Amino acid sequence: MRNSTDSFSIDMDLIPLGGKECIVKTSKGSVSVLVCGDRDKPALITYPDVALNYVSCFQGLLFCPEAASLMLHNFCIYHIDAPGHELGADVISSDEPLLCVDDLADQVAEVLDFFGLREVMCLGVTAGAYILTLFAMKYKERVLGLILVSPICKGPSWTEWIYNKVLMNLLYFYGMCGLLKECLLQRYFSKELRCSIEGSESEVILTCRRLLDERQSLNVMRFLQAVNARRDLSEGLKNLQCKTLIFAGESSPFHAESIHMSTKMDSKICALVEVQACGSLVTEEHPNSMIVPIERFLMGFGFQRQPHFTSSSSNGSSPASPSNHTIMSPELLSQESLGIKLKPIRTRFMSKTNKSPFSMFTTSFQYVVVSFLSTTAHNSVGYIIFFDCF
After folding, report:
1. Each residue of 295-351: pLDDT tens digit?
2. What residues are paired with 270 via a beta bridge?
3. Is 220 helix (H, G, I), strand (E, B) or coil?
4. Which residues lie closer than 8 Å to 279 by C-beta, 6 or more apart?
5. For residue 33, which phi and psi values (nearest 5 degrees)?
6. Structure pTM?
7. What integer pLDDT is reported at residue 308 of this predicted model?
8. CA dihedral defined by 144, 150, 151, 155, rounded to 10 degrees?
9. What is the pLDDT of residues 367-382, one digit of tens each?
10. Quick one: which of 60, 77, 57, 64 has its CA closest to 215?
11. Checking DSSP bridges between strand 270-275 and strand 367-368, what pairing results, if any?
């Protein structure tokens, strides 16, 4: 495939996440891929949601030092943007055929062929999670594991189908107008973030608005058309054999569908983590909530955090930051606990002085997993209880 596929590379000093951007020509059209890291390392591919690209969808997560030490230390990351969603993209010609979701999944396979990748870890958000799930169903032998954020797996309901039709008409006649951006922000973020008590919009919202202005509306419309014509994958999910970690934002409009997806998969290989007070875009709204579950998930594959990495001092560490190995219970590092299922149970809010064994794992938001306090002679060590080893 590599010999038969034309491509060119662009070195861009201003690419926010660093790396090299490659435009790969596939049988389904051109697609932009940003390659970050050492290509000799295992591969992790990402796919964003509608109207987003790697900058607006994943920079919040990857800019966290803890996440960088975990993911960039272990993987070379290949950010695949939906056609026409890359920075500085031109409008896709009307002569180009419209792509369906199967075409987009096949396009991912051709990207892997071009880079000579046999097996990859996948990280996708909502529509991007659907594309990577479909890719995993069609190319089972090429997927090591799935990390899905607010994923969808069913065909669109009549309500969603009509709503998306309205969005497509707005895109066609008015472009990336103010009303359309408000609709997309509702798709991505929780009401708590969008409607700030202070009255001013958060930096996350302002940045997303600015990045949406850079999208070509007709290109977004083509991706939305493909997503709106998607089929139900529910019955095929039970045949997936790769380990899967699902994050479900509690305030996401697709929360119920993400829960549905977790119930359709084999409970021995699927872990579900709900994030409170968060919309679909957990990677941007509450990225810290993802770090510990991802770390535990990747341990099941033998991946470890970068040695000697510390994110903060022991005296001034943020309670929202994931714990490092030095304060984790030894049971977590046992062979039986690597690769675990996180039960979707809401964490109770209690102080450490309370004698109850349950305790809050974070303060600004809660991991929706069970936390337990193991009292030792010197201190209390918080850790996650694991169920149903893979």
Report:
1. 999 999 999 887 655 444 333 333 333 333 222 233 333 334 333 334 333 332 222
2. 244
3. helix
4. 150, 187, 188, 189, 190, 193, 249, 251, 252, 285
5. -130, 125
6. 0.79
7. 54
8. 180
9. 333 332 222 333 333 3
10. 57
11. antiparallel
